[in-house]
Amino acid sequence: METIFSKIIEGSIPSNKVFENERILAFHDIAPAAPVHVLIIPKKFIASMNEVTPEDLPLIAEIHSVAQQLAIQLGIAESGYRLINNSGPDGGQTVPHLHYHLLGGAKLGALTGISDSHK
């Protein structure tokens, strides 16, 4: 399936890359929701988290490792960051290609109904 991400991967749409290897591409979001907002995508087409297979799990683990590396590289590891994957229309996924948002660089607001305080 052709998406904006497949066009970025093939180079027909430019991007501000921060990481690339043979399996993964990471680049700055053109409409950032935080001071640091990077998209991390597999070069292999996977429509959403629902289509991840057991064979894809090493790729998912590598994406998480890249997110950790980028958080350090971009100076947000110590203060904290958010790694988000939206899946499906009700989950907020707008591009049908698996991707993660790495957000940081400011105190991020609470997500509706989700809190880390379990007092």
TrEMBL record:
Which residue intervals define the domain HIT in the entry? 4-113
Give the residue interval(s) assigned to the motif Histidine triad motif.
Answer: 97-101
Q: Name one GO molecular function term.
A: catalytic activity
Query: Which catalytic residues are annotated?
Result: H99 (tele-amp-histidine intermediate)
Reading the lineage from the top rank, the first entry is Bacteria
- Per its record, how is this protein called by name? Histidine triad nucleotide-binding protein
